[in-house]
Amino acid sequence: MLVLFCAMIGTAQTGDQLRASFTLCDTGRRTTCVVDGDTFWLEGVKIRIADIDAPEISQPACEEERLAGEAAKLRLLQLLNAAAEFSLVAGVRDEDPYGRKLRIVSRAGKSLGEQLVREKLGRRWGSPRIDWCGGDMH
Questions:
Q1: Which of 47, 58, 62, 122 is an S-S bond match for 54, by CB 3.0 to 4.6 Å?
Q2: Which residue range is the domain that position 92 belongs to?
């Protein structure tokens, strides 16, 4: 079953409906947990939300960015644990240079990444970078 699931995550093109119970990742083994506002693990597969960039937690430029990143992480946890199923769809590239699967995450046809952007907890890929330390775009 796990092999079939991993194969589906690796090639998700059709938006198969998924459901999981997520926790926050800690320093232990990461199976199904949220790392930050744009990265999570699902059944042992590391996934990067393909359509957004969230504030940094591990190497923030300032305390404001770290706090924004923590808020994005908690909100992503809430969104992924909502009662409804979600889907993962591969974008133009299958994975990033760090080996994370690049996927658009959606529920009922609406991108969870876009929801984070609307809530000012991330930015769309290709849009101007946000200076989380001063709130300015550049």
A1: 122
A2: 2-124
